[in-house]
Amino acid sequence: MADFPKEFLELVSDPDSVKMVATTDKHGAPHVVVKGSLRVEGQHLAFGEVIEDSDSGHYLVRSIWFNRPVAVNVTKGDKSWQVKGRTYKCLIAGPLLKDFLLRERAKRGPDADLNAVWLIEPAEIRDESLEVRRQSLEARRPLFGRHLDRASIMAEARQLAAKA
Amino acid sequence: MSEGDLDHIEQLEAKYPDVPRFVLLKLALRYRGVRLLAPATLAISDADYNYGPVQVFRYHDEEALKKAHPGPLLFRDGTTGLVAFEDREVFEDPYVIDHEGGKFLLYSDASKARLVDEVDFTPRPAYYGKRTSSGKPMESIATARAQRMIICAYRHCHFWDTGEQCKYCAFFTDLNETRQVSEKKFPKDVEAEDIYETVREILKEPGRVSEIYMTAGADYEGEPAFEAEVDRYINILQAIGRNFKGRFSSQLMAPAYSKAQYKKLYERTGLTTVCPNIEVWDERLFKWICPGKERFVGRAKWIQNTVDAVEVFGKGNVYTQVIGGVELAKPHGFKTEDEALASNFEACEFYSKHGVVFVSVVFGPARSSVFHDQKRPSLEYFVRLIRGLRQIREKHGLKADNDDYKHCGNHADADLERVD
Amino acid sequence: MPPLSNQASALLADPATLKVVVAADGAGGARAELRPSLRLQEDGTLAYAEPFEASEANSLMLALHWAGKAAEILLSAPDGRAWRITAAPRRYLYTGPLFQSFYREARAEQGPNSQVGGVWVLEALKEEDAGYEARKRLEDEARPFYRYLDRSDVTPKGARA
Question: ipTM of the assembly?
Fold first, then answer.
């Protein structure tokens, strides 16, 4: 199980960061939901599933039943982290469910509902911020796909020309 | 490899890839039983877990009342497992649950040779330990599952008075003798006001309940038969209804009343679904296994009344169940599993066509039942049964919401619907 | 498919809307990316800029395109409105006026060293209201037994009023 890096923890706990959970249906078609409630719970990521009969609810059940991966993305501006993991648990009673339900009611009123709380066990956590990805990709394939009118390339070209 | 052990589970997983391991385990635990090891029993004594042995269907003596007892088992995927412990049935080689590192761990057997998975138990509800204004412990009024509260309105079944009880039944016994406990020890009547207060208390815990479930022992007094019972249920449902704005998610498991009786129930209370259990479909076997139901209603009328109830409560709001496996009971039951399955699928097809939700449970030969020495069919029988029932219901656009993993936990065929 | 609904169009036009594109990874998983550049074209197609040619996200979208399969788009507004669109990738452009348009936009927003690997053009196949209120209403009507009984408005309808 992967440990959570400090930068990831900061981004997750930022209320303005966007948290998304991606799953697939039985045919492999993808599905994504925004999960504002997503947070770190010990070694897991936890979020509330509001609607019992939702596509995401069904697909999460499929993922825990048939061992399919789940992906979480947390993004704010250029900062972004991807978590690949597996569904670890579905809570339908207990203190954590109650906590998520009360928060949901605080946000949406006393008629709000919450079907379950899902826990994700991360297997891989990657910094996919724009700059990190750019540097990683360009380090792997420095000549690939880089438009020559980019400021960084133009500067290099001028230096090369100066040496020649 | 033996029935329901881990090797067998793995074999069934490979053979039936659409049935998840959790559901197979749920069946296997019901089949082979579970024993709690000492650390698990100690952990269950904790206030968060200890339900205690008090239940609405069963008498417990002084000794039993001192023991810790968990609520329903929860698998990691949320599936509820109503496991049987050894006080209820005899198990040769049960699964065991230990407690290590702050977690409940399920092992394949007493040797703990193979870890099966981490499990949990339904947390004790907040209303447990409280008393009504008349001094009754609230957990004796309502038993909690993950999302359902079970209320027993009358703690005696009069079919037992003449030895005509359903042969698999152990309700209101002390689990040791094949007779119901005397009224002195286990009073029959439950006061409507106690029930009202208990439900009111339950609702104070946010998100704890999404269904009220009621049943009782059979009381056929009155004209027509069961009229006294119907009036009792109306009185109690009206008391419960004082807690709600209107109709509320609820199920009544009771005999197959007449359409007029169902109309009365529907019009005068907030009840939403009814469940007159057929128990076993075959005509010959119904008479043998459920003699009281046969005498006071009769199989044909039972079925007709169930179908008529759909006109009152609506499609998908009338349920019926079979005790899966009891149709193979010796000496009169089906000789082969294929014949038994065919009978159950015929029943499911019939009921589904008429808008009735047909579900199954796993037969458990309780010590204090007439059928205490009967054997269950193979575990694969139950796997084939639940797959077939789910497919038939799906074909007819029916779902077992009232009896699903959150509310009942006793119907593995309903569990499979979570991905539909 | 007919043109996208007014609700979807309005969400796409609103810069405050979160625009998420998710593609399956072929191994049972999926990958979601925020795509702030996603927009509705005049011809009714959808388009967004993929910054990195060699990214996993780009490979996945290409795999969907080759297999004739669809991605999913989620539009989520701060006021709770949400819309889901199933859309099939139809073209990948790395030259031409549309590509240039996205390229200049990236330069304006991210500076002179910004990168756009290509532009994906998708065709919307299906759309639905994914907002909380719509979904809650549907579930309360279709599956009344899932409602917690301590909800402030508990009056499940069952099949009869």
Answer: 0.78
